[in-house]
Write a structure and sequence with these properties.
Blueprint lengths: L1 H9 L5 E5 L3 H7 L4 H21 L4 E8 L7 H24 L2 E6 L7 H14 L5 E9 L1 H17 L10 H5 L12 E4 L18 E4 L9 H12 L8
Length: about 240
């Protein structure tokens, strides 16, 4: 643990970790339980990783909680997940404030139920001045949709003559996407054994390091997190140079 903390202090090249939290349902199946049991178990892992991120003094942690494609799941599972999100947020508000965590939600929130939308707005407001860790939670998020929305907003600006075509470059385009107020992503971790991005922050992770592990999310612990970080520091990041 101390070695990792020293690495992070002495090599501040790792400041933003994004995680695709995969494997809850398969983990539950292995336990002979239904998928809902796996989602509950996954919550404990989320809390552990947030605590570790605070210890390591990471600046940003982004978690892929619910994708825009997850609406294809059964109504029972979706309803359970939405209630789970709501209960977790209510129960954790005090901890977010206590540990100085800034909560930011990304994704299309309009499709969420109105109570959850109001709760999200409340938590973002209550934590907006916190500085220890920026915690981004992707809910009803899709990378392709993120890019499409950015293009639409740019077209609106052009039509209103607020910007011109010559103003559009990578830097300005990024301003119209989710996480535009965040530092770049350094490391993407995906648990569960699948080796794909699953429509997660397609533009934003262009130069992030990717780390895949077979460990299912409820089993992902401190040791696995440390190993992913150690693996990151063994790599050379050239950014095309």
């Amino acid at each position: 643990m101390k070695n990792i903390i020293n690495l992070l202090y002495n090599k501040p090249s790792l400041q933003h970790i994004a995680i695709i939290m995969d494997g809850n349902r398969r983990w539950a199946k292995k336990q002979g339980k239904n998928s809902l049991y796996g989602h509950k178990a996954g919550v404990y892992t989320v809390k552990k990783i947030i605590d570790l991120s605070l210890q390591f003094k990471l600046k940003v942690l982004t978690l892929y909680a619910f994708s825009s494609e997850n609406w294809k799941r059964t109504k029972e599972e979706i309803d359970f997940l939405m209630n789970l999100f709501q209960n977790i947020l209510i129960n954790e508000i005090k901890n977010f404030k206590k540990h100085n965590i800034n909560i930011n939600f990304i994704g299309n929130k309009n499709k969420l139920n109105i109570n959850l939308q109001k709760l999200i707005m409340q938590i973002e407001y209550l934590t907006k001045k916190n500085t220890a860790l920026q915690l981004n939670i992707a809910i009803n998020y899709g990378g392709r949709q993120d890019i499409i929305c950015g293009i639409k907003n740019i077209i609106k600006k052009i039509n209103k003559q607020q910007i011109s075509l010559k103003d559009i470059n990578e830097k300005t385009f990024t301003k119209y996407l989710e996480l535009h107020n965040s530092i770049p992503i350094d490391l993407v971790i995906r648990t569960g054994g699948e080796m794909r991005i699953s429509n997660f922050l397609l533009w934003q992770i262009a130069y992030a390091e990717l780390y895949f592990t077979n460990i299912l999310w409820p089993d992902f612990n401190e040791q696995h997190f440390l190993y992913a970080i150690q693996n990151f520091f063994k790599r050379q990041r050239r950014f095309g140079k």
